[in-house]
Specification:
- The chain is α+β, with helices and mostly antiparallel strands and 181 residues long.
- It has one domain (5-160).
- Helices cover 24% and strands 23% of the residues.
- The protein has helices spanning 8-18, 30-39, 44-56, 121-124, 161-166, and strands at 73-78, 80-82, 87-92, 102-108, 113-119, 133-137, 157-158, 171-173, 176-178.
- The longest helix has 13 residues, at 44-56.
- The mean pLDDT is 90.
């Protein structure tokens, strides 16, 4: 999928947040990489998969059902305004048919912050193919962690890229959510 010029700055922000976790970057020419990013010819989401795999100790598989050899899928999302300016949320799209956890990096552009989520399959597998996950934020960019809804996506937040890559997905047993490290 081609990078739209209007989204280029967002793609670059995502790249800069995870590039240090990619293998072999010390051998790359920084100016060439910067030029390729500005042209929009680097596939940032594929780089994200490689950074997650390297930090998480698995490999990239790039299948329809998963991106990583541990069965999980890598997702990048940027918070955007929707519902005629009354809502601000991060969409996590193309989740139908995924079989593992979603490892999501969210960029919130108003405060220039990143958030990370390891969303287990059981938490999103009920969502219809025509829909997606929406992680809610306040209009000023603050996380909206306390909400009443079927699934509060914030319960799957982790603190860092390292945890994003390494955290085991939450388990659901006997009506209780449990995070395993």
């Amino acid at each position: 999928m081609a990078t739209k010029l209007e989204n280029l700055a967002l793609e670059i922000a995502h790249w800069q947040n995870f590039v240090d976790y990619m293998p072999g970057t010390s051998e790359w020419d920084d100016n060439t990489v910067a030029d390729l990013l500005q042209l929009g010819v680097l596939e940032v989401s594929t780089g994200f998969e490689h950074a997650l795999a390297h930090e998480g100790g698995c490999t990239v598989t790039s299948r329809d059902t998963e991106d990583l050899s541990n069965g999980d899928d890598a997702k990048l999302s940027t918070v955007r305004t929707c519902s005629s300016g009354t809502a601000y949320s991060a969409p996590v799209c193309n989740i139908a048919g995924k079989t593992g956890a979603l490892r999501v990096q969210v960029y919130e552009r108003k405060q220039n912050l990143f958030y990370y989520f390891v969303i287990p399959n059981w938490a999103y597998s009920h969502i219809p193919k025509s829909s997606n996950i929406e992680i809610p934020f306040e209009l000023n960019g603050n996380p909206r962690r306390r909400i009443r809804c079927a699934v509060n996506w914030w319960q799957f937040e982790v603190d860092s890229f390292e945890e994003l890559a390494q955290q085991e997905p939450a388990q659901f047993e006997n009506g209780v959510y449990t995070l395993f490290t």
